Amino acid sequence: MSDRTPDLQCGERRQLAFMLPTLANRDLPPGRHLHHQETLMRLIDQDGVRTSTRSRLLCPAVLLPAAGLVLGEVLLAVLAATGWTN
Prior knowledge:
Blueprint: H1 10-19, H2 32-53, H3 60-82
């Protein structure tokens, strides 16, 4: 057992289980399961369309490092062309 779970005796477990409320075992009405399944599939399709059409190049996580690299290369090229050294 993990450190977080107390070591309970069998009788204590039965007593605690008896105090817990019983879960209602209800089925969905006819057609309701199909409704939820179609809704879930529609949301999955919408999410796939949204992520595939979004340009990943314009994402700030890609754009900012790329801009920094380009700026560094331009600065290095200018310094090399002017012959600037310490």
